[in-house]
């Protein structure tokens, strides 16, 4: 297969990253950081989640953030909803975003611990939500967590994951993201998996979402690219993790992913310097060192221009 020469990257730090921070981040800082990401050329940003504030207090100001951010008109904003109640609440401010993500875990145990429902119960609700989202004229994206392994059940069967993906597609999802929720993927399996996913899901945007828990995130992204995947999710500063189980580290850093692609002459349309600046600013806001490499090393000079 010929390597793709252009990719899309969705920034998930303002939702997936911030939600794991123990100290409340002021709304003003969230808005400022999201605006900076929009100015870096990102066309897709996941901003908020409509979950109960007592479950994830960090995202309780999601509606205010959505109403205050000022990004270019061509930037698509995404929100995550866990269930129909969350979708009800999101649709009350429907004019503030463009895409809705729904999700399930491929692992029964992880799904139960994460949302306190079985996979079948979650998918029944997802079927209803997907159709409602499409009827509202919004883009529907589906996310399958623990697609590459579960910390409670071990290996997750590829066929089971792709069956769930097909069900999402039948319900109206036009994008399906496969999450390496606790960093259990490896490059060889990423290559095999994404080749199969791209073949089995024609017409669907297949998205890779890798965590760097065991240091293999960029290698997995490279393997997915070589297998034909052209859509990726990442988080500036390598923010993020998974609350179930504790100790799972963040997503691959957006600036590290962009740096790798630019050095390979793969176009992203992003301004690497500005993404690094946003990540460094997040480091100041959080008052601790973040773990991306590009925050420290900066870009390679011949690979810094937006492409």
Automatic annotation (TrEMBL):
Transmembrane segments: none annotated. The keyword Lyase applies. Gene3D superfamilies: Aldolase class I. Keywords: Lyase, Metal-binding. One of its GO terms (molecular function) is lyase activity. It comes from the Bacteria. Residues 7-276 form the Pyruvate carboxyltransferase domain. SUPFAM superfamilies: Aldolase (SSF51569). PANTHER family: HYDROXYMETHYLGLUTARYL-COA LYASE. NCBIfam families: PRK05692.1. Belongs to the HMG-CoA lyase family. This is Hydroxymethylglutaryl-CoA lyase. It comes from Rhodococcus zopfii. The lineage of its organism: Bacteria, Bacillati, Actinomycetota, Actinomycetes, Mycobacteriales.
């Amino acid at each position: 297969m010929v390597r793709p020469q252009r990719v899309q990257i969705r920034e998930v730090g303002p939702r997936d990253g911030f939600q794991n921070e123990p100290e409340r981040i002021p709304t003003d800082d969230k808005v400022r950081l999201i605006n900076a990401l929009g100015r870096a050329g990102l066309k897709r940003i996941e901003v908020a989640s409509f979950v109960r504030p007592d479950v994830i207090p960090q995202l309780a100001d999601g509606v205010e953030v959505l109403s205050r951010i000022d990004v270019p008109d061509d930037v698509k904003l995404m929100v995550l909803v866990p269930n129909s109640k969350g979708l009800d609440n999101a649709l009350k401010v429907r004019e503030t975003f463009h895409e809705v993500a729904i999700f399930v875990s491929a692992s029964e145990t992880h799904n139960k611990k994460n949302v306190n429902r079985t996979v079948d119960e979650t998918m029944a609700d997802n079927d209803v939500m997907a159709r409602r989202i499409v009827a509202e004229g919004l883009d529907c994206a589906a996310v399958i967590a623990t697609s590459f392994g579960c910390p409670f059940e071990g290996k997750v069967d590829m066929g089971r994951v792709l069956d769930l993906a097909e069900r999402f597609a039948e319900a109206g999802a036009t994008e399906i993201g496969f999450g390496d929720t606790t960093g259990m993927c490896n490059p060889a399996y990423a290559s095999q998996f994404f080749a199969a996913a791209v073949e089995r899901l024609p017409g669907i945007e297949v998205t890779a979402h890798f965590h760097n828990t065991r240091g293999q995130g960029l290698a997995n992204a490279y393997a997915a690219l070589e297998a034909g995947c052209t859509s990726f999710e990442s988080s500036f500063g390598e923010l993020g993790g998974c609350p179930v189980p504790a100790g799972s580290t963040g997503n691959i850093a957006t600036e590290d992913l962009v740096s790798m692609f630019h050095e390979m002459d793969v176009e992203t349309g992003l301004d690497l310097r500005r993404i690094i600046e946003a990540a460094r600013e997040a480091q100041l806001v959080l008052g601790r060192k973040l773990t991306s490499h590009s925050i420290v090393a900066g870009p390679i000079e011949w690979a810094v221009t937006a492409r």
